[in-house]
Amino acid sequence: MMQTPDPQLLFDLKVAEEQRIEPKDWMPEPYRRTLIRQISQHAHSEIVGMLPEGNWITRAPSLRRKAVLLAKVQDEAGHGLYLYSAAETLGVSREQMIADLHSGKAKYSSIFNYPTLSWADMGAIGWLVDGAAIMNQVPLCRTSYGPYARAMVRICKEESFHQRQGYEIMMTLAKGSQEQKAMAQDALNRWWWPVLMMFGPKDDESPNTAQSMQWKIKRFSNDELRQKFVDATVPQAEYLDLTIPDPDLKWNEARGHYDFGAINWEEFWEVVKGNGPCNRQRLEARQKAHAEGEWVREAAMAYAKKRVMSYEL
Length: 313
Ligand code: BYC
Description:
The protein is an all-alpha fold. It is 66% helix and 2% strand. It is built from 13 helices and two strands; from the N terminus they run ααααααααααββααα. The protein has helices at residues 7-16, 29-48, 50-54, 63-88, 94-102, 120-137, 146-174, 178-197, 209-214, 222-240, 265-275, 279-292, 294-312, and strands at residues 250-252, 257-259. It has a two-stranded antiparallel ribbon with strand order 1-2. The longest helix has 29 residues, at 146-174. The protein is globular, with a radius of gyration of 21 Å. The model has no long low-confidence stretch (mean pLDDT 97). Benzoyl coenzyme A binds at residues 37-38, 41-42, 45-46, 49, 76, 107, 109-110, 129-130, 133, 136, 197-201, 206-209, 212, 218, 222, 272.
């Protein structure tokens, strides 16, 4: 008589053989929970991430800059929607995810709790924040959960346009007047360290990394990605003739990597706990937008219902 294969064994085999796990496949509950946590936090980051840049849409210095920034911010909304949909395939509702964001239960990326003080911040965010996002997200195109991996493919293509638009702003400012160059340098000074924190805690203080790498959700550790980012970004800063605000930043011939200074982890955890410069403002903006959009959701539901009824007739 044929024996039913052990579902855990089948799951392990699929992961080992680089096959994707799909929504209807059996999966261990902790794997499902980890994915719901990571994908929903990722979705929240995209949506909350619209706010710092949204701040500059009405103050962009030209029509061209305004149109590009508007398109970028709209892309972030799209990314949030693909990611919420990917998380929904794991059995969590969108309402629940949004409620967890609004109650402060769910996290979103620490980086979006910093203020955008000048136009140069649009350049620094595109160059550095989207640059860090790409470093983290390209490996996620090979993550073991199918819907997440597929969402990441399109997201990464758009992120690479975002990174280029940011770098182009930085190039314009860095090669412009003295005041413009000073603005670019000031933005780099303020964003550099928070961007390094985006990759998450050090590996020996990251409770989730080992298991997530075993499941092939994560392909590289937080420290590995942070190092790759520093190595890729230093030459870009040199090309701009801007100075990375780290006196300990130095090429290490033996390691074949840049050494860099100590990150202020106390600041990171304060921001993650909700005490960053803009945490309250960000959550309030999301809660307000959700409340004000209620009539749109109601109208969309009523229209969808009407269409279903007309098909049923
Ligand atoms: N901020 O064990 P760890 C974008 C939390 S959007 C806040 O290493 P994990 C963009 C972590 O959640 C970019 N919290 O966790 C959008 C965990 O707490 P919980 C967003 C952080 O999951 C608009 C605890 O610390 N990208 O690019 O293995 C405009 C311990 O950490 C952070 C993604 O979301 C942080 N920075 O690794 C422009 C990528 N770091 O959940 C740009 C997908 C850590 O146990 N996510 N924590 O309570 C990931 O790759 C991983 O979740 C992380 C963390 C590398 C972020």
